[in-house]
Design brief:
By secondary structure, this protein is mostly helical. The chain contains 17 helices and three strands. A hairpin with a 5-residue loop joins strand 1 and strand 2. 30% of the residues are buried.
C-alpha cells in the first residue's frame, strides 16, 4: 500500500518527541528525576542500568532531541531511529518511579519505527539518494502488515484502558474520577459542573464507553471522521483536567494510523498516489518476509500477554500492583501512602526508625509508598546501607499505611 501514512507518522512522531525532550531539558526534570536522587528503583533484570553523571545526562537528552528531529526529517533514518529508540529506553530504565504509560508507549512506537521502512517516502534519505547519489527513487509503498501492526499497537492502548474501567469503583462509585474532579472546581466554565454529584458518574461512563468503542469506530470508514473528532475533544479535555503530560498529544497523533494510507496526500492535495504492486501470495515471500511476519505476530502476542499477566495473581491488581505496569491501566486508581522503616540490630537489639525521605526524593517517596515492590527494594537498600556503616546484621521491617 501507499507509504504516505507511515511517512506522516514518522514526521509527527519525531516532532512530538523532540518537544518532549525539550520539556525535560527546560523544566529541570533531568536534575529532578536522574541527578538529585541517591537511590534508584530498578526493573527486574536491569539492575545494571545506572544513570550517567549530570552533564552527560544533559548531553543524552540534547542528543535525543537532535535524533528525534532526524527521525522526523528521515535523515540517516536507520541509524538515527535506532539510536533514538535505544536512548529513550535507557532513560526509562534508570528508575522505576518515573514510569508513565506514555513514556512506555513512546518507546514501543520508537522501536516499531526503527524497524519499519518509514524513510521510503518524504525523507531526506530518499531525496539524497535521488538527487545527490543519482540513484533510482525508492519505492513509495510498504507492506500492508505495517499498517495493521501500528493500528494494533495504538488500538490495544484504548481497549485495555477501557477494560480496566470495567469495575465497580469506576462505573458505580465514579472513583477515582470523583476525587480528581473535586480538585478542579475552580476551573472556568467547567468547574461549577464538577460540584454536581451526577457529573463524575456520567463522565466515568463516557470515558469507559469511549475507550472500549473508539477503535471500532475508527476502523469503520463511515464513522472514522466522527470518531476522530470525538477523540480530539476527549484528549483535549483530559489534558486540561489532568497533569498527564504529552500522553493526549501522542495518542491524538498516533490515532491517525486508522485513516486511509493516502490521507496525507489527500490532505496536501495534488500528490499522486504511487502505482501499487499486485499482492503476492504468501508462498511467493522469501524467508526474511516470513520471519518478519513471525516476529510481528510474536510482538503482538507479547503486547496482549503483558496487560493480562495480572490474571496470574490473586487479589486486586490496583492494590498489590502485580501486573500494573505495561498494562495500559490508565487513570484507574489514586493511591497515597506513608511508610516508615524499622531497623533492628540482630546483635544488640537496638532499634532505628528510618524515614524514606533520608534516602529518596519527594517524588520517589510518593511513588514508593503505594507500590509494594518498591517498598521491598528500599528495605533491601536500607539493610545494605546499615551493613556498610558497620552495624552488622540488621532486620528491616516496613510499616506502611
Amino acid at each position: 500500500m501507499d507509504s504516505a501514512w507511515l511517512a506522516a507518522f514518522r514526521v509527527l512522531y519525531g516532532l512530538v518527541l523532540a518537544i518532549s525532550m525539550l520539556r525535560f531539558i527546560q523544566n529541570g526534570w533531568i536534575e529532578r528525576f536522574f541527578v538529585q536522587p541517591r537511590v534508584f528503583f530498578k526493573y527486574w533484570g536491569f539492575d545494571w542500568i545506572q544513570p550517567l553523571p549530570g552533564p552527560a545526562l544533559h548531553a543524552v537528552f540534547w542528543a535525543l532531541f537532535g535524533l528525534a528531529l532526524c527521525v522526523a526529517a528521515g535523515l540517516a533514518f536507520r541509524l538515527t531511529a535506532a539510536a533514538f529508540a535505544l536512548g529513550l529506553i535507557y532513560v526509562q530504565l534508570i528508575d522505576v518511579s518515573t514510569y508513565l504509560n506514555h513514556y512506555y508507549l513512546a518507546a514501543l512506537l520508537a522501536i516499531l519505527l526503527a524497524v519499519s521502512p518509514a524513510h521510503r517516502c518524504w525523507s531526506l534519505d530518499a531525496w539524497l539518494r535521488r538527487r545527490v547519489f543519482q540513484q533510482r527513487a525508492a519505492d513509495e509503498t510498504v507492506a500492508v502488515a505495517w499498517l495493521y501492526l501500528f493500528r494494533f499497537q495504538v488500538g490495544i492502548v484504548y481497549v485495555f484502558a477501557g477494560l480496566a474501567k470495567l469495575q465497580a469503583d469506576w462505573l458505580i462509585h465514579a472513583q477515582p474520577l470523583r476525587i480528581w474532579l473535586g480538585a478542579s472546581t475552580d476551573l472556568p466554565l467547567l468547574g461549577p459542573l464538577f460540584t454536581l454529584p451526577w457529573v463524575p458518574l456520567v463522565m466515568s461512563w463516557c470515558g469507559f464507553l469511549f475507550d472500549t468503542t473508539v477503535v471500532a469506530f475508527l476502523l469503520h470508514r463511515r464513522t472514522r471522521l466522527f470518531a476522530y473528532a470525538a477523540l480530539v475533544v476527549f484528549h483535549a479535555l483530559t489534558r486540561v483536567l489532568f497533569p498527564i503530560g504529552m500522553f493526549p498529544v501522542i495518542m491524538t497523533m498516533a490515532a491517525l494510523v486508522f485513516f486511509s494510507p493516502s490521507w496525507p496526500r489527500k490532505l496536501l492535495g495534488g500528490l499522486a498516489v504511487p502505482r501499487l504492486p499486485r499482492a503476492a501470495p504468501l508462498a511467493a515471500f522469501g524467508p526474511l518476509h516470513k520471519l518478519g511476519l513471525v516476529l510481528g505476530f510474536a510482538y503482538c502476542a507479547l503486547q496482549l500477554a503483558l496487560p493480562l499477566r495480572f490474571l496470574a495473581y490473586t487479589g486486586n491488581v490496583l492494590w498489590h500492583e502485580q501486573g500494573m505496569r505495561f498494562s495500559w491501566r490508565v487513570m484507574v486508581r489514586a493511591k497515597g501512602g506513608g511508610t516508615t522503616f524499622i531497623v533492628r540490630s540482630q546483635q544488640t537489639g537496638k532499634v532505628w526508625h528510618v524515614s524514606p525521605g533520608s534516602y529518596l526524593t519527594r517524588l520517589q517517596e510518593s511513588e514508593m509508598s503505594s507500590q509494594p515492590d518498591l517498598i521491598l527494594q528500599l528495605a533491601h537498600h536500607i539493610q545494605q546501607d546499615f551493613a556498610r556503616q558497620g552495624y552488622g546484621s540488621v532486620e528491616v521491617r516496613a510499616e506502611s499505611r
